[in-house]
Amino acid sequence: MSVPGAAPDTGSTESAFKVHAGTTTLAGTLLLPGQAAAGQVPVVLIVAGSGPTDRNGDSPGGVRGEVYAQVAGGLAEHGIASLRYDKRGIGATPLGVNPSDLSIDLYAADVRAAADSLRSDGRFSRVILLGHSEGAGLVLQAVNRGAPANGIIMLAGAGRPILEVVHSQLAVQLDSAALLSYDSAMARFTRGEPSGIVPPATVPLFMPYLRNFMRSWAAYDPAAELRRAMVPVLLVSAERDIQATAVEHARLVSARPSASVLLLPGASHVLKPVASTDRETQIAVYADPTLSIVPQLVPGLVSWIRTLR
């Protein structure tokens, strides 16, 4: 993961880091490069993707390999600190609210609390928010609501409202009748009405406690939010991503033509190399803990971060 002209850091240290965020305390891991002993360094706040994804990037749903920890380690090798944390109700972070009160606004407020904590920490010269997948939307939402940041990195983020993205993902898994059934049920669900019978594969999306969360996501348009953002933006797209496809990336680029762009050849949604977009091949890569992130990712991040002031 070397960057031309940069001397790798070998004295990084890792420690627990807590962020008080309203009704909970976010449990995180702060990774400091050796250069931090001599003065201020940039820091990247790493915000996880959807579901029960933990601070390291792993999920009981079948994602293994600690991809966020790999990103953090790569950044530290080049003098950049990072904070990654468990979201509410994940890992060591208490939920802190009734599950039915979860919303994108609450998660974005947690991002802001973490960014505020880093901004007030004298060890850091610049604060960069990096969100992966759903986290890309959260960092964008947070910065537009006052989170301090010198720049944001949207890594494999959606470019359309979430229900449009989910519809596209389900369109390759369900037949037309099941897809129509899902669309009708989700429309009822987000209106606060009983969803009725739903396709078995979509049952997890209709858990009663998710109603408020899905409604808040449905109202969020990442392209519109991106046009409002007043900080530098890096859009990172994985070539063989079957979740945040080229369609999503193109919509983000169209919304923010001035954004910097980083394309990751041969990369999957979880930032590991994958041979094809075949679903079974992709799932095997998600679950393989031995695979490293693609080698272009960290150098691309480091080069862009060094342009920020």
What's the helix and strand layout?
Layout: E1 13-21, E2 24-32, E3 41-47, H1 67-76, E4 81-85, H2 104-119, E5 124-132, H3 134-143, E6 151-155, H4 162-171, H5 176-190, H6 211-218, H7 222-228, E7 233-238, H8 246-255, E8 260-264, H9 279-287, H10 297-305
Parallel strand pairs: 3-4, 3-5, 5-6, 6-7, 7-8
Antiparallel strand pairs: 1-2, 2-4
Helix pairs in contact: 2-3, 7-8
Which percent range describes the beta-strand content? 15-25%
Task: Name the quaternary structure.
Answer: single chain
Number of DSSP E strands: 8
Count of individual helical segments:
10
Q: What is the name of the CATH topology of the largest domain?
A: Rossmann fold
Largest sheet: 8 strands, mixed
Provide the domain count.
2
What's the overall average pLDDT, rounded?
Answer: 94
User: What's the CATH architecture name of the largest domain?
Assistant: 3-Layer(aba) Sandwich
* Series of H and E elements: EEEHEHEHEHHHHEHEHH
Unreliable sequence segments: 1-8
Rg over CA atoms: 19 Å
Globular, elongated, flat, extended or rod-shaped: what is the shape? globular
CATH superfamily of the largest domain: Alpha/Beta hydrolase fold, catalytic domain
Compute the separation of the termini in Å.
23 Å
At the first level of CATH, what is the class of the largest domain? Alpha Beta
Arrangement of strands in the largest sheet: 1-2-4-3-5-6-7-8
SS-based class: alpha/beta
In percent, how helical is the residue content? Answer: 25-40%
